[in-house]
Amino acid sequence: MLTRTFLAMIASLVVAAPAASQDRELPYWAAMRAEEVNMRVGPSAEYKIEWVYHRQGLPVRVIRMREGWRLVQDVDGAQGWVVARLLTPDRHALVIGEGEAEMRSEPGGAGRMLWNLEPGVVGSLGKCEGNWCQLDVAGHKGWVDAERLWGDGDP
């Protein structure tokens, strides 16, 4: 009897976990989990594909949830529906603005200049201090002015 009760508890936790993970406050940041992600005009595979993203790690703002689908907004303001399993909650950021963004060894701009990042570069976002955020671009780590990043701060 104890084993049956224990198995029932485990089964209920396994079923409840995915539902609980969808109880997030909107909006929130997410990123593309796959190399190719379809953005659709509605929350179903039956809807037309509006756009195909080819950037794993590309940050998006999730603004609505519906039965395994997420309404996302990209850096250009385009909105559409993406299947939830193709998004990751891991934080990423996209370099924006004109010209190269400097990646420095320390926050605040006083650190040694490490790299110049072209607009469109995507990296894993670390912690932010003041107006500077840690960014990891393919193993190249440093601090970037947050004004040059899309995907940091409050969504």
Structure description:
The protein is mainly β and 155 residues long. It has 2 domains: 24-90, SH3 Domains (SH3 type barrels), CATH 2.30.30; 93-150, SH3 type barrels (Roll), CATH 2.30.30.40. The chain is 13% helix and 45% strand. It contains 1 helix and 14 strands. The strands form 3 sheets. A 7-stranded antiparallel sheet has the order 10-9-13-12-11-8-14, with no helix packed on it. Strand 5 (69-73) and strand 6 (79-83) form a beta hairpin. The chain starts with a helix and ends in a 5-residue tail after the last strand. The relative contact order is 0.15. This is SH3b domain-containing protein. InterPro entries: DUF1058. Residues 1-16 form the signal peptide. Keywords: Signal. It comes from Qipengyuania oceanensis.
In short:
InterPro entries: DUF1058 (IPR010466). The chain is mainly beta. It has one helix spanning 2-21, and strands spanning 28-32, 37-40, 49-53, 59-66, 69-73, 79-83, 87-88, 92-95, 101-104, 113-117, 122-129, 132-137, 140-145, 149-150.
Q: What tags apply to this protein structure?
A:
45% strand, 155 residues, DUF1058, 14 strands, 13% helix, 5-stranded antiparallel sheet, SH3 type barrels, 7-stranded antiparallel sheet, SH3b domain-containing protein, signal, mainly beta
